[in-house]
Amino acid sequence: MKSAARILIIDDDADLRESLALYLKIHFSKVSVLGDPRKVHEALNQEEYDLILLDMNFQAGRNDGQEGLYWLKHIKELRPEIMVLLITAYGDIDLAIEALKSGASDFILKPWQNQKLLAALLRAYELKSTKGKLKQFQQQQDKSGNELIQLLENSARSASSIALLQQARRVAETDAQVLIRGENGTGKSQLARYLHLNSLRKDAPLVSVDLGAIPENLFEAELFGVKKGAFTDAREDRSGLVQQAEGGSLFLDEIGNCSLLHQQKLLRLIQDQSYQIVGSPELRHCNVRIIAASNSDLELAVKEGLFRQDLYYRINTIELKIEALRNRQEDLEVLIDYYLDYHNRKYGRQLELETDQRAQLLAYTWPGNIRELSHSLERAVILKDGHFEQSLGSGASSMPGNEASDLLSLNLEELEAQHIHQVLNHYQGNISKTAQHLGVNRNTLYRKLDKYQIQHEV
Asked: Are 277 and 225 in contact (CB under 8 A)?
């Protein structure tokens, strides 16, 4: 099967370019030739090419390769995405280095072996394809990042949210450790990404890990990586999340769920920027910015001996507190419009809100915060073709409108207990579905069920 690469051969030797084209047409779907490099601008405007084979000497008696370098730079200015392979009869090392610095993908010596030439062209095309995919991925990431920044800044209408983003922007410019506090579903991971996108590390990775979701016996392997042979199933080296975040940011979500043993490992990582791969005695150093988050009372955990005080101080250089959605009424109005529009676009629907339906959403206290709001509107968009029904029903955790106003008088713990009870009933006692809906892991849900003495099947 022929490669889809589109190739242009530029050489003043008619016999060479025609014989080369004849060979390459066996392996590539499109091969064109050009005898005069001065016509390359016209050729590139008329056709799209992936690869160019460019001779380095055109004028008789010249063999210094400067013509080839000139046209190489010209082509890269016109079409930087095209991979250019230079052809020369003179294997000068300094010339080859200069050519590669100027953007050449490879350096082909005459006379060449056809199989080696073919391999060089296929390598160059594969590299171009990979670069194209990476560029597309980066563009998607940039678009996604810009949308997130726009969402957070546009929805920050309440005094607390405006102050929070102002502080976040100032902190983002530094490498200070940040601890984000807030209830489940308030957008802690969004704020972590906002910090990363506004930092000097924005072009490097942001790697997120939910520490509460990693099994105890896999903690070090997931975070720090594994050396081949470290244990029975370790058949190859595997990088950890710290290594994947090199140069960027590492977001440690639910750090309060981390055991004391693993807190010690995290302390060394944060304090010394060092860690050990499982199965290796070598101490490795890293360059990552740590952003942590928790919805638990870490101060109480420190007092009870469940969380290391030294680690608490290390992660808490700067604390950013996200208010619950029920305390940000001004933000809620913007967020309703955003998530309704988002899910309408996602599913190709045109769900609209009547005035009374919007009022019902605004009256509800959203114990699941932004996550619950988004899920509720998504469900409504999926299940309804045109409009909301008078009651949100399953679209808002089975909370009838009249109950929403009654709950305003309840304190937070009563509200949380009632909400958990309703969601658990909605899923007929299914712990996994209830935990997923609430945005917590099963262990956290079990603790809350015991705390509020809610009956459940074990």
From this structure: yes
